[in-house]
Specification:
Layout: H1 5-16, H2 22-26, H3 39-45, H4 50-60, H5 70-85, E1 89-101, E2 105-109, E3 120-123, E4 128-136, H6 142-147, E5 154-158, H7 164-173, E6 178-182, E7 191-192, E8 203-206, H8 208-220, E9 225-231, E10 234-247, E11 259-265, H9 275-291, E12 300-306, H10 314-322, H11 325-330, E13 331-337, E14 347-352, H12 359-372, E15 377-380, H13 386-391, E16 396-402, H14 420-438, H15 458-462
Parallel strand pairs: 3-7, 4-5, 5-6, 6-8, 11-12, 11-13, 13-16, 14-15
Antiparallel strand pairs: 1-10, 2-9, 3-8, 4-9, 10-12, 14-16
Length: 466
């Protein structure tokens, strides 16, 4: 974070209604600013209230918001009521999907091993009780199984190179009875298989240290066995929702026909309150909707909250799929806010799927240069709700801090880890960037929509920004 102190002074003056002399705004600021805030930037950011954002996070993160559960349903109702209280037309868009019930019990027991093991589960993993010999299957590629006999064994596999789902399928097709996947970097491993597959066998996860300890035990005990227990895991039909609030152009005669989507996902993973992932992005989206409600604009702005992102971008994929071709052509930008408030994460980046600049990254860098004295770093990520927009040919980018906080996808992702400074920074940057395009006197060149492209679904599951 490199926001200069003077930025807070300006924000405080704006928030308190104090008049700001034109000379102060018009002149370059010595502490690194290349451009001064103009009147449109001021309009875009002046009503943002970071305490409102923080309070939304507090409400949303009281319990895990797992897709398809009653807690997520309450979040949907909360968002709907908030958007309506601001005066918006609100659509609640239901969708069904093959959902997953987390196991009631997971256990890993290795006779003769002294160190304690704390296994994790993979979303969409299957139930089973397997006792079998252990084998080291490398990264779990087909070539790895050509050098070992996996028939009836439990394969120990390192994370990396391809999806968790493919690792489980490769083990299954090699005849293995179970899989243990351990992390390839420090920390616990939390993942998803992305969806149901009849080829799955029981699979558990371990941290890097525990996985390496297990392999050391196997080296010292060639006939080592283990028992994997997964009980209560179930896949079935579930319903989740998207919530979309629409700000129409304030003058129909000047309506450009363009649409900007500011989006975030509302759901969290099991056992995680999800204060940062992603109550933070959802709360910023709510506050942007409130603070921008009365801004004069020639562009439609949609404030969207998507369900079931953690299960494979299901809500955003449904939203984009339901759009007509005409609607897709109207959407010129998608700003995706995912994990934007952790005090323990790194610096803000704006990441497109292909790593290339587009209208979202360009507007963002222009706004952040004026607000913070230097542009937000660009990155590359195919791991959130901007992906379906990109696949449809719509310029899109993810706002996230990198590297991720150590509390990612854990029960420790709680309100006390949230930074108001980071929330304020992201909210101001997105508001200024969006309004740069949406304001009446906008003279920016219109960007051509890229051709449709395809991003492997595996990118979501195996390529978090770290």
């Amino acid at each position: 974070m490199k926001k200069k102190a003077i930025a807070f002074s300006l924000a405080a003056m704006l928030a308190s209604g104090v008049a700001i002399p034109t000379a102060v705004i018009a002149q370059p600021i010595e502490t690194g600013y290349q451009e001064a805030l103009d009147q449109f930037d001021q309009k875009a950011i002046r009503k943002i209230d970071v305490d409102r954002i923080y309070n939304h996070i507090a409400t949303l993160s009281e319990a895990p918001r797992v897709a398809g559960t009653e807690v997520e349903n309450r979040s949907v109702e909360y968002l709907k009521n908030e958007f309506e209280s601001y005066g918006y037309d609100v659509e609640v868009q239901p969708f069904t999907y093959t959902g997953y019930t987390e196991p009631s019990r997971i256990d890993l027991h290795v006779p003769g091993m002294e160190s304690e093991l704390s296994p994790g589960n993979f979303t969409y993993g299957v139930s089973g009780d397997v006792t079998a010999g252990l084998i080291d299957a490398g990264i779990g590629s087909p070539a790895d199984y050509e050098r070992v006999n996996a028939e009836g064994k439990i394969a120990v596999v390192r994370r990396g190179e391809f999806s968790f789902a493919q690792k489980v399928i490769n083990a299954s097709e090699a005849g293995a009875a179970g899989v243990i996947i351990y992390n390839n970097s420090p920390g616990a491993l939390n993942g998803t298989l992305g969806g149901h597959d009849d080829r799955y066998i029981p699979a558990l996860s371990l941290s890097q240290a525990q996985g390496q300890a297990l392999l050391e035990h196997l080296k010292a005990n060639s006939g080592a066995e283990a028992r994997i227990v997964v009980e209560g895991a179930e896949t079935g039909e579930h319903t989740s929702h998207n919530v979309i609030a629409t700000k129409h152009p304030t003058n129909k005669k000047k309506d450009t026909g363009e649409v900007i989507v500011i989006g975030s996902h509302m759901d969290s993973v099991p056992d995680a309150p999800g204060a940062n992932d992603n109550a933070s992005g959802t709360a910023v989206t709510l506050e942007l909707a409130r603070s921008m409600k009365n801004l004069p604009s020639d562009t439609e702005i949609r404030f969207a909250s998507f369900g079931a992102e953690e299960l494979g971008l299901i809500g955003s994929r449904h939203y984009v799929k339901e759009l007509s071709e005409e609607e897709k052509d109207r959407i010129v930008a998608n700003f995706n806010l995912d994990m934007v408030g952790s005090r323990d994460a790194g610096d803000l980046i704006v990441a497109s799927v292909d790593g290339e600049p587009n209208i979202v990254t360009e507007l963002t860098q222009k706004a952040s240069k004026k607000l913070n004295g230097e542009p937000t770093t660009r990155g590359r990520s195919g791991s959130s709700d901007h992906v379906p927009f990109h696949e449809a040919g719509i310029p899109a980018a993810l706002f996230i801090h990198s590297p991720l906080e150590p509390w990612y996808h854990t029960p420790q992702d709680t309100l006390d880890k949230i930074s108001k400074e980071k929330l304020q920074d992201v909210a101001e940057i997105v508001a200024a960037a969006v309004y740069d395009r949406a304001r009446f006197d906008n003279q920016n060149p219109k960007e051509k929509i890229r051709e449709k492209s395809s991003v492997p679904k595996e990118a979501f599951f195996e390529q978090p920004i770290r």
